């Protein structure tokens, strides 16, 4: 089994901007890399990503025609987006993304497992069907913090630590600009709702960013008195800071995953004691 992802960039524009012009549907796609429909005035920019799972065709090597994904998202997906934005009512983003999955999935094929809506460079909302066909919605927000640390084991000599950790064992420590992705989830179709982005932001800021930002992890953070502050341990500590407080985000909301990026090439994803810890590429 393989998973193919395809991202469709599009803009939802104010109808006022279309007055006297051909609609986007009536004009040829000329720059899908940037976005199509293209931006008119102060429109809204989104990225819709589709995840498709299955076995590639033995002859063509294709899992699904990506042009089909593009066409369906710009047709059925735009209908969902325009309806939500033009309703005049507050928009429940989790319901919209669940609606996107239900709208485009049957048109593209049975292999569609999830659809994700990119709202900002850091904020994404995904609707996914699990192995039991339960529809879930997940929100991921990106944060940053800066911190210093030293990698060393207290029961080893300086020479042994230098052998194990290289320059990272420097007694003076060193710093990183960390990036943090926090994902929360709830089941779709019930009373549970994903939090507003500002609520998620404030929650993570209070319990994680204030605890770790501009701190020397070995010295200033109690959790690392007995833990070597590797990126793996940092991810587990972040989970611990959040998991017991998730009820503040609303009934039915649960912490799904944290991912800590130490550099652009090294990250660790953690999903709790029953989940797996995986180094990212």
UniProtKB/TrEMBL annotation:
Alphabetical UniProt keywords: Lyase, Metal-binding, Zinc
Record's catalysed reaction(s): 7,8-dihydroneopterin 3'-triphosphate + H2O = 6-carboxy-5,6,7,8-tetrahydropterin + triphosphate + acetaldehyde + 2 H(+)
The protein's annotated pathway: Purine metabolism; 7-cyano-7-deazaguanine biosynthesis
Enzyme class: lyase
Organism lineage string: Bacteria, Pseudomonadati, Planctomycetota, Phycisphaerae, Phycisphaerales
Single GO MF descriptor: 6-carboxytetrahydropterin synthase activity
Cofactor: Zn(2+)
Protein EC: 4.1.2.50
Family: Belongs to the PTPS family. QueD subfamily.
InterPro entries assigned to the protein according to its UniProt record, in alphabetical order: 6-PTP_synth/QueD (IPR007115), 6-PTP_synth/QueD_sf (IPR038418)
Protein name in the entry: 6-carboxy-5,6,7,8-tetrahydropterin synthase
């Amino acid at each position: 089994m393989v998973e193919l992802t395809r991202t469709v960039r599009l803009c939802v524009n104010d109808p006022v901007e279309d007055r006297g012009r051909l609609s986007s549907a009536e004009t040829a796609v000329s720059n899908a890399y940037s976005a199509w429909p293209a931006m008119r005035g102060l429109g809204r920019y989104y990225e819709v990503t589709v995840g498709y799972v299955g076995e590639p065709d033995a002859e063509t090597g294709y899992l699904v025609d990506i042009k089909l994904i593009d066409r369906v998202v710009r047709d059925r997906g735009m209908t969902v987006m325009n309806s939500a934005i033009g309703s005049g009512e507050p928009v429940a983003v989790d319901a919209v993304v669940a609606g996107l999955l239900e709208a485009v999935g049957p048109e593209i094929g049975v292999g569609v497992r999830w659809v994700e809506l990119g709202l900002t460079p850091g904020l994404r909302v995904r609707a996914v069907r699990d192995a039991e066909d339960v529809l879930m919605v997940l929100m991921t927000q990106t944060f940053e913090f800066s911190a210093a640390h030293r990698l060393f084991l207290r029961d080893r000599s300086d020479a042994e630590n230098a052998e194990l950790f290289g320059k990272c064992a420097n007694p003076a420590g060193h710093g990183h600009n960390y990036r943090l992705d926090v994902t929360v989830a709830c089941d779709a179709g019930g009373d549970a709702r994903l939090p507003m982005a500002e609520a998620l932001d404030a929650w993570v800021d209070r319990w994680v960013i204030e605890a770790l930002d501009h701190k020397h992890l070995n010295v200033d953070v109690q959790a690392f008195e007995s833990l070597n502050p590797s990126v793996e341990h940092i991810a587990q500590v972040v989970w611990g800071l959040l998991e017991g407080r998730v009820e503040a985000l609303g009934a039915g909301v649960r912490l799904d995953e944290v991912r800590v990026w130490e550099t652009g090439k090294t990250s660790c994803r953690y999903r709790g004691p029953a989940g797996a810890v995986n180094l990212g590429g």
